[in-house]
Amino acid sequence: MSITADLIRGHTDTIILAHLLHGNSYGYQINKAIQDKTAGQYELKEATLYTAFRRLEAAGYIYSYWGDEMTGARRRYYSITPTGREAYFRMRAEWEEAKTTIEKLLEDNDHGR
Amino acid sequence: MSITADLIRGHTDTIILAHLLHGNSYGYQINKAIQDKTAGQYELKEATLYTAFRRLEAAGYIYSYWGDEMTGARRRYYSITPTGREAYFRMRAEWEEAKTTIEKLLEDNDHGR
DNA sequence: CAAAGATACCTTGACAGGCGAGGTATCTTG
DNA sequence: CAAGATACCTCGCCTGTCAAGGTATCTTTG
């Protein structure tokens, strides 16, 4: 969790969409996957996660359905829509752009003095 | 301004500090410099800028003083403090880390399926 | 010289996303 | 059976961004 909230802000949606690209999943698993991927360096807070699901579903980027688990706690599965896929690629492109811009602005450049 | 606010969020302070590294400056000029650097792709909104100045000053990262212009509108100059310098380098390091993390999480990786 | 535009500062209030804190229910393990 | 993991959820606060509005001075232009 060493990464501050404001730096990750705005990426939550894209991160979730990225995980749904290869197949349907449910909240708890997505969160686990993220922790694994970043070696515990970052975790979506549950409240953040579920807020994001609502937002993404309202936007038509994902849809959800209850799993038919015979055992264990019930799970709500999420699936990415074609629109969601498009959104993902658009958001990634935006990130690439933003990255360059931020990089430029954070530089400690001393040119001309 | 093609870059969305949420992606830049949290970088405002670092951007300002970066600009003050090479010398004192005032709000209007800093904003102009940012627009030039990004070829108009991004501009800090004034309200954001001045909020940030207050925040940075309260944190002891910068201090301000009124310029003694004999002509033109009055200018409030800002100067970075040693603590501010430290903060800048720390924030840059955080950005480097965050970047890697975000990159990892946004990947469209299909490994293992 | 008046109007328009640039320079330069500032505040208020709304909004959105993140998240701490709290809650529910089920299954597994010691 | 208690503890911990799995799995879901909501409420209300906090913080950073920014649209909209304001002030004052100087320069340019018709």
Key features of this structure:
Arc Repressor Mutant, subunit A, three-stranded antiparallel beta sheet, 5 helices, 11% strand, homodimer, mainly alpha, DNA-binding, 113 residues
Description:
Two copies of one chain form a homodimer. The first copy, chain A, has a single domain, classed as Arc Repressor Mutant, subunit A (Orthogonal Bundle), CATH 1.10.10.10. Chain A contains five helices and three strands. Chain A has helices spanning about 5-10, 10-20, 25-35, 45-60, 80-105, and strands at about 25, 60-65, 75-80. The first copy, chain A, has a three-stranded antiparallel β-sheet with strand order 1-3-2. The interface between A and B is large, with 38 and 38 residues. Chain A binds a DNA duplex (30 and 30 nucleotides) through helix 1, helix 3 and helix 4.
Radius of gyration of chain A: 17 Å
What's the assembly state of these chains? homodimer
- Which percent range describes the beta-strand content of chain A? 5-15%
- Count of the domains of chain A: 1
Q: Which sequence of SSEs, written as H and E, runs from N to C of chain A?
A: HHEHHEEH
Mean pLDDT of chain A: 89
Indicate the CATH topology of chain A. Answer: Arc Repressor Mutant, subunit A
**Class from helix and strand fractions of chain A:** mainly alpha
Largest interface: A-B, 38 and 38 residues
The CATH first-level class of chain A comes to Mainly Alpha
| CATH architecture call of chain A | Orthogonal Bundle
| Sheet having the most strands of chain A | 3 strands, antiparallel
Number of H/I helices of chain A: 5
Shape of chain A: globular
Number of strands of chain A: 3
N-end to C-end Cα span of chain A = 39 Å
